[in-house]
Amino acid sequence: MKVFDWLNVFNVSRLVAVLLFVAIFLDPFFLTIFLENKFLIGVIIIALLVTSITFGYDLVKKKLSGVTDLVRKYFFLSLSVILLFGVLYFIVFNLDHAAFKATYPLDAYRDPFYFSAVTFYTVGYGDIHPFDTAKIIAVLQMILGSMINLVVLALAIRKLKY
């Protein structure tokens, strides 16, 4: 594999998603590097959009080689959507601290991603509540998460059936 083949838009966008995911779990310092720079936030949003769209397209339009291929694509699709909405919640929270209420003091860097994962899977623990603009974004994420989960479930059933 040539270096230039690896450095295409799709692979770079996946790399950005993985780096952001790792930064969330390592230390808030690494997360601030990504989220304190407006240019980097723009790059992250574009990279996560590209990753979400390519994995979504691959999931629906391309022939899956098996259930493991389906699970791999579902994992990266759901991860990129959760990270994308986490960045959006981070932006909303930093523009308006009243956009979220919680039963504990919110961590401006990690809690938006936690809330995004809880919303994507429609768990709704009740420890963080969105208001105003954040509610609209949360509803959009719930709809998208439900659609993705239903499509993957249908594909898995069809794959296991035939």
* Helical fraction: over 70%
Major pleated sheet: 2 strands, antiparallel
- What radius of gyration results from the CA coordinates? 17 Å
- Runs in which pLDDT lies below 50 for 5 or more consecutive residues are none
What is the 3D shape? globular
| Residue-averaged pLDDT | 84
Description:
The protein is mainly alpha-helical. It has helices at residues 3-6, 9-26, 28-35, 38-61, 67-95, 111-120, 133-161; strands at residues 100-102, 128-130. A two-stranded antiparallel sheet has the order 1-2. Helix 2 (9-26) packs across helix 4 (38-61) and helix 5 (67-95) runs antiparallel to helix 7 (133-161). The longest helix is centred in the middle third of the chain and has 29 residues, at 67-95. It is globular and about 50 Å long. The termini are far apart. The relative contact order is 0.11. The mean pLDDT is 84.
What is the strand and helix layout of this fold?
Blueprint lengths: L2 H4 L2 H18 L1 H8 L2 H24 L5 H29 L4 E3 L8 H10 L7 E3 L2 H29 L1
Antiparallel strand pairs: 1-2
Defining traits:
Helix Hairpins, 162 residues
Report a brief summary of the structure.
The chain has 162 residues and is mainly alpha-helical.
